Amino acid sequence: MSQIRTALVVLLLVGLTLFSVVNNSFVAVNLGFQQFDVWLPLLVLGSFALGLLPVWAWLSTDKMMLKRKVAKLEASLGKTESELAQAKVELLRPPAAQAVPTPAPPPGT
Predict the structure, then answer these.
(1) Which of 7, 9, 41, 99 is within CB 3.0–4.6 Å of 20 for a Cys-Cys bond?
(2) How many helices (H) and strands (E) does the chain have?
(3) Which residue ranges traverse the bilayer (predicted)?
(4) What is the pLDDT of residues 36-50, one digit of tens each?
C-alpha cells in the first residue's frame, strides 16, 4: 500500500513540475482594493490549499470524535466483560450445603 501511495505522490509531483514549466507566466489578481501579479503555479497551489483546508478540518474533527466514541465503547465493553466473567464464576460455583430440616417427630411419641 505504501508503494502505491509513494508512486501517486511522485506522479503528482512530476505533473506539478510539468505544469509549472509549461505555465511559467504571471497572472493579475484583483482583490478589489489592490492588484497583484502572481505566478500562475503558485496561484493554483494556493487555491488548492485554501480549498483543502476546510475539508481537512472537517475530517480531522470527525476522526477525533470517532476516536473518543471508540474509547468510550471499549471502556464499556471492558466493564461488561468483567461483569460477565464474574457472573460465570458465580454460576459455576457449587451451591452451598443447605441445612436439611429434620422432620418434626409425630405428635404423641
Answers:
(1) 41
(2) 2, 2
(3) 38-59
(4) 999 888 888 899 899
